[in-house]
Write a sequence for this structure.
C-alpha cells in the first residue's frame, strides 16, 4: 500500500484555499477535496509494517492545536517553481507531532525521505518548467490572512495512483489530546 500521514482540513478551509487559484499555464491545481497538510510520506509499505505502524501511531500522545496560514511560496525556487503552496505559521505542537510521527515511522523500519519538516499545503504542481513568472501569485497572497482552524486528529491515508490522478482514502484516524472545557 502507498501511504502518507497527514492533517485533514475542514471543508470550509478547503473552500477558502480553492479561492486562491489563479490562471497559471501548466499548473495542476490539487482537487479541493484532497487538500491536506502532509506530516510524512511513506510510499509503498507492506501489510505487516502497516499493522506495526498503526499500533505505533496509536501510542502517540500529542496535544491538539490551532493552525494559522502564513503566506504562499513555491518549491524549489521562484525561477523553477514546481510546487505552489500556502504556508503555516510556526506552531511548536505541529512540529512536535510531525517529529513523533516520523519517529514511529522510523521505528517501523519504513524508509522515508529525511528532509526537514517544512509545513505547507500544496495548492498546485507544475510539471514542465514554465516561462510565465509566478510572482503575481506570490505577491498577491504574501500577506494572506485566513482564520485559524483547529486540529484534533491526524490521519493515515492510502494513495492509489490512477491515470486520472491519485485517490486518497483514510485508513485510520488518530486523536490528539484535547482539553475538556467545562
Ligand atoms: P505535499 O504535497 O504536502 O508536499 C501524498 O502523496 C502527499 O505526500 C503529497 O501531497 C506530498 O505532500 C507528499 N509527498 C512527499 N513526497 C512524495 C513523493 N515522492 N511522491 C508523492 N507524494 C509525496
Amino acid at each position: 500500500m502507498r501511504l502518507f500521514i497527514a492533517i485533514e482540513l475542514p471543508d470550509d478551509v478547503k473552500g477558502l484555499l480553492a479561492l486562491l487559484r489563479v490562471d497559471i499555464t501548466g499548473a495542476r491545481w490539487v482537487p479541493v477535496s484532497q487538500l491536506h497538510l502532509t506530516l510524512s510520506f511513506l510510499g509503498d509499505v507492506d501489510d505487516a509494517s502497516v499493522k506495526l505502524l498503526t499500533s505505533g501511531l496509536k501510542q502517540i500522545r500529542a496535544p491538539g492545536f490551532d493552525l494559522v496560514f502564513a503566506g504562499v511560496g513555491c518549491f524549489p525556487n521562484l525561477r523553477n517553481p514546481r510546487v505552489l503552496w500556502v504556508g503555516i505559521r510556526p506552531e511548536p505542537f505541529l512540529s512536535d507531532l510531525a517529529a513523533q510521527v516520523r519517529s514511529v515511522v522510523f521505528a517501523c523500519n519504513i524508509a522515508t525521505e529525511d528532509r526537514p519538516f517544512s509545513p505547507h499545503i500544496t495548492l498546485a504542481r507544475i510539471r514542465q518548467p514554465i516561462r510565465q513568472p509566478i510572482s503575481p501569485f506570490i505577491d498577491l497572497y504574501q500577506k494572506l490572512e485566513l482564520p485559524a482552524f483547529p486540529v484534533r486528529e491526524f490521519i493515515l491515508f492510502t494513495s492509489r495512483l490512477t491515470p486520472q490522478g491519485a485517490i486518497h482514502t483514510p485508513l485510520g484516524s488518530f486523536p490528539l489530546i484535547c482539553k475538556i472545557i467545562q
About this structure: The domain at 2-175 is CATH 3.90.1140.10 (Cyclic Phosphodiesterase; Chain: A,). The mean pLDDT is 94. The chain has one domain: 2-175. The chain is about 25% helix and 40% strand.
